[in-house]
Amino acid sequence: MSILIGMQSPKNLLQLIEKYQAGTATPEEKQVLHDWYHSFDDEQAEIFSEDLREEFLEQHLLERLRASVKEEKPRGILSLLKRWQVAALLLLVPATIFVILTNKPAAPDAEAVAETRPVQQEILPGGDRALLILPDGKSIELDSLGNGLVVQEGNTSVEKAANGLLLYRASQEESGSDNTVEYHTISTPRGGQYKVTLSDGTKVWLNAASTLRFPVKFTGAERHVEVTGETYFEVAHNPQLPFIVHAPGTDVQVLGTHFNLNAYNDEEDIRTTLIKGSVNVKATSVNQSGQLLPGQQSRITPDGKLRIHDNADVEEAIAWINGRFQFRSAGLKTILRQIARWYDVDVEYRGNVDMRFSGQLARSEQVYNVLEKLKLTGEVNFVIEGRKIIVTR
Q: Cα(231)–Cα(329) distance, rounded to whole angstroms?
């Protein structure tokens, strides 16, 4: 199950806790409150015995609530109102913790939930869908093919395996004096994702609305590929053959490493997040370079400048390959851009929706359920019309 609570809204948390204690919370509201509490069940808590764990988590939760309120800095009469709400919330938390710990809500009855929901068009999540584009321009819909051999390119066979994987197998036989380099392109639509293992053993994941152009078999002194959108790489180590990823506005050079590259043209920054090894990132428009170490993230800003940030949220950067949306104080429009790509929907904004959220959501749910969890924060509302999401306050 997933959670998503706007920690900038103590008023809504207070209402949820009050409804929980009064026995009037819906099954979905109980689950949200339960998941919200257990989002504080981090690695630090695991070192405590069971009898001390509740006390630790209670204190941990209270500290985070106080910190979230301080960040808001409310003014005037709103300040008095929010202080009263938070004070009440902090008083209610200890008693409610015991209830949440000892009474995990049962899964809501499917028929009862269905009766209370308005009729909405079912918009399902994306899946393993992609086009393979060959050198002659011919395209193959990979999701419509059965597993097995897709095409033979010289000494390299291209095979479709299970679970959205395309596998390039290079024969050990030499092709004589033929140095012709053939390029393939894999393109995922909105609502699609795919994974490919290149002829050198490098693994690449493609998120929705992304492309990867690469040689069928690597030749020469370097390995070059081109990408757009979002891709995750596990590069096969080979010190003699540096691996270079080209994306609009940036080049990333590696020997063997794991990293995520987000280069969507509708995002503000181009972000490279390093998980393992080291990479050299170059901002091509200003010819500026920098080296990343594990846990760091580079950002190339709209003016082409390169910035390197320590202590990057690695889990957030690669959540998509693990089947999740994950956010930490992310703007609503940033969240909905990801949702729009994965569910292949359009988004229309009406009014000011400048707000931030933290939490995580499963990419396996239909879009209605995802939006309902966002609505439970009490900060935003959604209407679905066909394949359009209309966002209001």
A: 23
